[in-house]
Design goal:
Elements: E1 10-12, H1 15-25, H2 29-35, E2 42-45, E3 55-61, E4 67-75, E5 78-86, H3 89-96
Parallel strand pairs: 1-5
Antiparallel strand pairs: 2-3, 3-4, 4-5
Length: 97
Amino acid sequence: MKHGLFDCTGFQWDNGNSEKNWIAHQVNKSECEQLFFNQPIIVGKDGKHSKVESRYYVLGKTDQERQLFIVCTIIGELIRVISARDMSRKEREVYQQ
C-alpha cells in the first residue's frame, strides 16, 4: 500500500546523504525533521527526478526559522531525506506567498 508524505511515521537516514548535506550545506538531520512539524510547509512532486521512486520537494522552516529546501522519498512509512539546503531566492519568494 502506498503512503503519502503526511502518512509517514518517522524518518530513515542514509549516512551518505546525511554527511553530504552537512558537508555541502551545513544542514543536520534534526533541522530536516523539524520542517515536517512546522508551518507553513509546501510539498510538491518532483516528477523530473522520479523515474525509479516517487520523490518530493519540500519548502519549510526549522525551529530557528531557517528556510530549507529538501528532496525526499518515502520508504515504507518512513521519510528518507535525499538532499537538503537553504532555499534559493526564488524558492523563498514562492514560500512567502
